[in-house]
Amino acid sequence: MKKVLQSNKLHNVNYEIRGPVLEYAERLEADGQQVLKLNIGNPGAFGFDAPDEIMGDVIHNLRSAQGYSHSKGLFSARKAVVQRYQIQGVTDIGVDDVIMGNGVSELIVMAMQGLLNPSDEILIPAPDYPLWTAAVAISGGNPIHYRCDENLDWQPCLADIERKITARTRGIVIINPNNPTGAVYSEEVLCKLVSLAEKHGLIIFADEIYDRILYDGSVHYPLSVLTKNTLCLTFNGLSKTYRLAGFRSGWMLVSGAKDSAKSYLEGLEMLASMRLCANVPAMLAVQTALGGRQSINDLTMPGGRLTRQRDLCFKLLTAIPGLTCMKPKSALYLFFKLDSSVYPIENDENFVLALLKQHHLLIVQGSAFNCMDRQHFRIVFLPDRDLLVDAIGRLSNFLLEYRQ
Known about the structure:
The chain has helices at residues 20-30, 52-61, 75-88, 103-113, 130-138, 158-163, 187-200, 223-226, 262-274, 280-283, 286-290, 296-300, 305-318, 348-359, 385-403, and strands spanning 36-37, 98-102, 121-126, 142-149, 155-156, 169-175, 203-207, 231-237, 249-256, 323-325, 333-338, 361-362, 364-365, 376-380. It is an alpha/beta fold. It folds into two domains: 8-49 and 297-403, Aspartate Aminotransferase, domain 1; 52-290, CATH 3.40.640.10. The strands form three sheets. Strands 2-9-8-7-6-3-4-5 form an eight-stranded mixed beta sheet. It starts with 19 loop residues before the first helix and ends with a helix. The model has no long low-confidence stretch (mean pLDDT 93).
């Protein structure tokens, strides 16, 4: 029979967080072997349960979720999102400026598909959350990666960004707090990024999914507050802060210079209508989640579980010879670097695969995040203390064997 081939649109699409290495891990598990998976920031898999209040409200209202909602989402959910950003200082927004999605991932793809024509360019940080690069590519655009400086706590390099702006550049992605590095950008850097975007008429795509997972007194500055003279699309959701990754409930807020983008916004509404609506039961969680007490603060405060596990993981990792790491100020990961003079690595994916085969530990190579070298790796610090000690012990033993 004639072979059935994938679309050419997928040729430049990569999402290696869930790529060949994970497939090998799943084969090991199918054979009855245990694999310690520290590749995905999935809070529910490590005992971080969603607040009971949210679950109770969803169950209470579940019968009302049998039909379609408005294509942009439930009014109550969108209103809660608007009020969240109004409290932070965002003005001139209403419920029509919010589109609910089946997770932020769906909305990222939608935002790119509604905007890009062939050869259009989007600036994306390196390292990045790889869905952004994939979404640009599958939408026919060209992802252009700008450098974040590890020596400056992974802050974006403004000079590198400006060098890469061309007549084809349509927008800039700003991931703050950052995945995979855990960096939280300063207000000064963010203001300079906004000025640069406004100067060149670039849309700002603000990925702020970790905005409330902050350590050591770090402060997050919403780009929707700082942006006035260009369009700003902010992406956030329930997956991380509210430990509801499986609900797939996210939102996109449109703010800033909306009048100049009427055609684009009509296109986004069209795409939202084509999928009928987002998951209605999951949207029932939004109003309760965004209102009232924020339980994530118990986990990120000094002595909180996430802070303790971050500190332990950082301590164990940086005790390994030839390994360095910036202590993350946000998110759920450590993005560490191996000294090339101690661990010369030609292919970081093969390195991760060897670690998996020999010690049944799964982490993610830096190239999966479009990192510009092959010496970086991301590890999740969500497991409890005993599992973290076990995991870092396996990594340390593997690195000792690698040196020898």
